[in-house]
Amino acid sequence: MNANDIYFRKNIYSKSNNEIYNELTHITHDGGHNVYDLNQEQKFDLSLFADDKIAPGLFKPDQSNPQKFYANSLTIRALKKNILLAGEDFDEFAEIYVCEKCNKELDLQFWHFCPFCETQFRAQI
Ligand SMILES: [Zn+2]
Fold first, then answer.
1. Is the predicted pLDDT of residue 15 greater than 70, yes or no?
2. Structural domain boundaries enclosing 61
3. pTM of the shown model
4. Which of 18, 20, 58, 92 could form a disulfide with 87 if both were Cys (CB 3.0 to 4.6 A apart)?
5. Cα-to-centroid distance, 8 and ligand 1 (Å)
6. How far is the CA of 51 from the centre of ligand 1 (A)?
7. How confident is the model at residue 59 (pLDDT cuts 50, 70, 90)?
């Protein structure tokens, strides 16, 4: 990866799926070859259902359907829809952030705002 990877991570929580997708097509190795082969794209559909008995920030898998999960309505609002995972490893674009209000550690690639306390993220300059 090169310097545009740093730009890619910056404020990733505020980027749309299309913006992330476009940026991925421009990430190159130092030799100029694309890092990601977007022809290898795979889609996974998961269903989320609101259950406010579950604490914010947590997901509860359905006992009988592995594609079905339950979460607090705050968690569902905070979660980015159409999450784009760039590689086999989910940590590839991890951008760890500690919430200023509740001190929970979050990965900014998955959230619009803090799913635990609803605090907006501070923009990275
Ligand atoms: Zn928080």
1. yes
2. 46-79
3. 0.71
4. 92
5. 23
6. 20
7. very high
- What are the tokens at 3? 């310097």
**pLDDT over threshold 70, residue 89:** no
CA 15 to centroid of ligand 1, rounded, Å: 20
Residues 99 and 66 in one domain: no
Per-residue tokens: 109: 């690639």
28 and 64 housed in the same domain: no
Residue 89: count of CB within 10 angstroms of its CB: 9
Q: Are residues 32 and 87 in the same domain?
A: yes
How far does residue 78's CA lie from ligand 1's centre (Å)?
11
Instruction: Label residue 92 by pLDDT band (50, 70, 90).
Output: low
Q: HSE-up of 122 (CA within 13 Å, CB side)?
A: 8
Element housing 8 (H / E): helix 3-9
List residues, by chain if needed, whose CB lies under 5 Å from ion ligand 1: 99, 101-102, 114, 116-117, 119
Based on the domain organization, do 85 and 123 belong to the same domain? yes
